[in-house]
Amino acid sequence: MASVASAAPKPAHLNTLDGLRGIAAVSVMAFHWHIEAGSSLFQHSRLAVDLFFLMSGFVLAYAYDARLKAGLSFWAFFIARLIRLYPMILIGIGFGAGWFALDWLITGEQTFSAPQFVTYLFMNLFMIPVVTWDQDMAMFPLNLVLWSLFFELVAYAAYGLVFARAKTRWLVPVIVVGAIGVTGWVVFNFGAAPTPPAGLGFLKQGFVADLSRISLSFFLGVMIFRGLPRLNAVPPIPAVFLPLICLLIFVQPAGILPWWACLFIVLIVFPYMLSSAIRENITGRYGAISKFLGDISYPLYVTHLPIMWAMRAVLHKLFPNLPIVWLGIIVLPGCVLVAYLMLRFYDQPVRHYLRHKFLSSGLMVRDKHNRLQKSQVGFDGN
């Protein structure tokens, strides 16, 4: 196993981190499936999104902190991030729209009227959320998981415009305010009395709660990157235990972990796991498995809900007497297979084409010397 905290060139992939990202994506899929099956397991997999945000902030700072400070333009940075995210966002919206059409054909029930469908399709394509005070409906009705990608894009913009070049101490008020909002979110979602008082519903599942989650975890990830040399004094968790800790947290049924334990996980456990994972970059067979999990994590996250709903509807029609939970033996591997096919035959080729197009157009020519510099930058982040 190789340490990534040395002065050697930075590896292109942090395999241990990739493995955690894959486990988090599978756990989110399991959470949604157990909701479909009426099971209470994996209810704490909602916290996996906070782990995603944390890792995203770290990886972005890892890749772009030095380059933006050295002169990479905001638009070159942001278009690169759109190239990374948007191809799968479009597929996720297409799968979602296809599912609602299939559902209408199978059940005869029309979830949206035609004007609603067209409106939501337009808004989803341009990543415009449907926002209400206490979020009584999904921000992205055609594919529910897109809410987190919307906030990722918001965080990218804030990072590229302000925080990449700002002193690290500027991150502190953002993280503190985010932590206050996240405290309300965990209290109202994991507390013994989860119904918020009148006027505070926005802290349970509204825009403010989600903005708090990205503000806390994403920018905490940026701060961990910049403070890694000081964190090296803290003994890391051995990489072999990190997947076990994830599963131990995510598999718990509703009501097992109190709200304060969930807050402790988001504020302390996840950052400690991140700082451990990035100091032990696993290689060999387990490194290859981790990289595979990391590669499929994003396509799986974006596509699993509409694929899951469609497969469940078709299989339940074919085998009406089979308990829904048993359909997961086919549905969950099916979601993983679709994610791999999307990665292999759509996402990677499209991103390769778009990167080639924009690089050859001269948009990122200014970044040539910065890309060389990237291979020489250590973890000081200064």
UniProtKB/TrEMBL annotation:
Pfam families: Acyl_transf_3. Residues 16-342 form the Acyltransferase domain. It comes from the Bacteria. PANTHER family: ACETYLTRANSFERASE (PTHR23028), PUTATIVE (AFU_ORTHOLOGUE AFUA_4G08520)-RELATED (PTHR23028:SF134). This is Acyltransferase. Signal peptide: none annotated. Coiled coil: none annotated. GO terms for molecular function: acyltransferase activity. It comes from Asticcacaulis machinosus. The chain crosses the membrane at residues 47-64, 84-105, 145-163, 170-191, 211-228, 233-251, 257-275, 296-315, 321-343. Keywords: Acyltransferase, Membrane, Transferase, Transmembrane, Transmembrane helix.
